[in-house]
């Protein structure tokens, strides 16, 4: 098995969507003063790599805590916008994906959709009850048109419209090249 971390590190002052709250990470307890370490986190619900609930863009739609946990994981594939797609699994796009893909996506009934999604496409998918993942890192490291397991669990925020996630792809293969200890992929963006 090989684990590929697709998550952007959350850090103080990281870029956010214009108008969203800034990300602030502060050390409030230290080993020297308190004999433990604790950080204060302040951020918007759509900071860094995150999942969007339908309620993010549609009033009265499902919130994170109303969705069953199995909606945030499952068999997935990285696909090309113009290629063939499997039905009923998670679909990810490494290339920009726009509203022109909506009808095809609806026909393929994905569990969730992630990648470089345009805002109109994201809004339309959420209207269909399809959760979306955005600000994923390193999708190009995933194999094309080969299934993998995806896990992107949100925090269980009551009434939540979105949440940062630790997005991980698990490939059912052992490859020595590019793989570190415990099957974690190594490289500039890996932090296993």
From TrEMBL:
Q: Which Gene3D superfamilies match?
A: Putative cyclase
Give GO MF terms, alphabetically: arylformamidase activity
Span-the-membrane segments of this chain are: none
Identification of the protein by name: Cyclase family protein
Q: Which GO terms describe its biological process?
A: L-tryptophan catabolic process to kynurenine
Provide the residue span(s) of the region labelled Disordered.
173-192
